[in-house]
Specification:
9 strands, 279 residues, 20% strand, alpha/beta, three-stranded antiparallel sheet, Rossmann fold, six-stranded parallel sheet, binds adenosine monophosphate
């Protein structure tokens, strides 16, 4: 049975007597197959598993969808029970940010001023701040993150390395809908037709990877080719499509044929979708 816990004190007392290793999956709820894949990986190596379900206001910018972000605690609890999550932690804003007294985490600009960070100012600072707080509360042995939010994964690794957390970070592959669209809570905003249109995002990523792997194009030329492909899809508006090194998300040399990612953010009917592919 999954225990639903709402306060930090109750969670800490419950965890003081839990079996180790302890696993932790931070989420913003509205759980889908992407989240479930993380749960499955975590269940394989942990004796106790905590999943947090908290829509973190700090990581939403002005005009973003904080208010209307999908929330469905009942369905999330059912998914947690079906997948044998031990604890679902559902704190209030005040519980996580008591009297707003909280250490705001400052990240290196190399991580925040690229890709999603260019348009989502302070987003990753908000992510790092809530994770810093949650990691301190849960004190897990393993933490699980999806490669779908790739830039976030690099932020998490930085956080663990630089804020003396002892947890091991596990990254989990992207889970996709049957048409290739990466599973995301925001897919709930899309109609069936819009989802078909959004499937072209993954097609563009596969096109770029194929063009590099077959030696037809350099990463830069492959990027341009995929941008042309996406520009022909009505209603899709590309925010960025870039190649970044696997090592540290720095720019990729034109000589590279592997060891990097193509990453993209695309807007469709006012919804922002992100995806990436490893080359
Ligand atoms: P979120 O609730 O969107 O904050 O996501 C919580 C965790 O689930 C993050 O580590 C995400 O990267 C991961 N996640 C979300 N969607 C997917 C997906 N399609 N495949 C794998 N992991 C995912």
């Amino acid at each position: 049975m999954t225990v639903l816990i709402k306060t930090v004190n109750e969670l800490k007392s419950k965890l003081s007597e839990c079996n180790k290793p302890l696993g932790f999956i931070p989420t913003m709820g509205s759980l889908h197959d992407g989240h479930i894949s993380l749960i499955k990986v975590a269940k394989d190596e942990c004796k106790t598993l905590v999943l947090s379900n908290f829509v973190n206001k700090l990581q939403f910018g002005q005009g973003e969808d904080f208010e209307k972000y999908p929330r469905d605690i009942e369905s999330d609890l059912k998914i947690c029970e079906d997948n044998k999550v031990d604890i679902m932690f559902v704190p209030s804003h005040e519980e996580i940010y008591p009297n707003e007294e909280i250490e705001i985490v400052t990240l290196p600009v190399e991580l925040t001023d690229i890709l999603c960070g260019k348009t989502r100012k302070n987003h990753f600072q908000g992510v790092a701040t809530v994770l810093h707080r949650l990691f301190n509360i849960v004190n897990a042995d393993f933490v699980y993150f999806g490669e779908k939010d790739l830039q976030q994964l690099y932020v998490v690794r930085w956080l663990v390395a630089n804020k003396s957390f002892s947890a091991t970070v596990r990254s989990c592959p992207i889970i996709r809908e049957s048409n290739g669209l990466a599973c995301s809570t925001r897919n709930k905003y899309l109609t069936k037709d819009e989802k078909d249109t959004a499937a072209n995002i993954y097609k563009a990523l596969k096109l770029a990877k194929g063009n590099v792997r077959s030696g037809i194009f350099t990463p830069g030329k492959a990027t341009l080719e995929s941008l042309v492909f996406l520009s022909k899809i009505p209603k899709l508006k590309v925010e960025y499509f870039e190649a970044k090194s696997k090592n540290d998300l720095s720019p990729v040399s034109e000589k590279k044929v592997s060891g990097f990612y193509f990453l993209t953010a695309v807007h469709l009917s006012g919804i922002r979708l992100i995806d990436n592919i490893e080359v």
